[in-house]
Design a protein that fits this description.
With 124 residues, the chain is mainly β. Helices cover 0% and strands 61% of the residues. The strands form 2 sheets. Strands 2, 4, 5, 6, 9, 10 and 11 form a 7-stranded mixed beta sheet that branches. The radius of gyration is 14 Å and the shape is elongated. The termini are far apart.
């Protein structure tokens, strides 16, 4: 029905740049929010940031632990969200998951959808 496809993960050297993308496709009526989560080895999944709609447009929300380190942007026309980070550190290693809160045709309410996750490994 709905699919989120992440891309851009892989092996990156410390100090390098990361740019992930996530595209949502399917019978989508509207998207309330899109964002990114990550799960480091041996740790629980945590929020990185999301983009939601606001009174004058979209609002961006970052977790306190990553604020200032990541940049999230969204292309509404393409149903795509991006995650940008320069000067990567080994502690950025983990599986990054795309999340979307959206509405689908023929059903009321909003639903959470998750991508399969993309591995990001930052080498020292």
């Amino acid at each position: 029905q709905v699919q989120l496809v992440e891309s851009g993960g892989g092996l990156v050297q410390a100090g390098g740049s990361l740019r992930l993308s996530c595209a949502a496709s399917g019978r989508i009526l509207s998207i309330d929010a899109m964002g990114w989560y990550r799960q480091a080895p041996g740790k629980q999944r945590e929020l990185v940031g999301t983009v939601t709609k606001g009174a004058l447009g979209g609002d961006t929300n970052y977790a306190d632990s990553v604020k200032g380190r990541f940049t999230i942007s969204r292309d509404n026309a393409k149903n795509t969200v991006y995650l940008q980070r320069d000067s990567l550190k080994p502690e950025d290693t983990g599986v990054y998951y795309c999340n979307a809160k959206l509405r689908v045709y023929f059903w009321s309410g909003s639903y959470d959808y998750w991508g399969q996750g993309t591995q990001v490994t930052v080498s020292s």
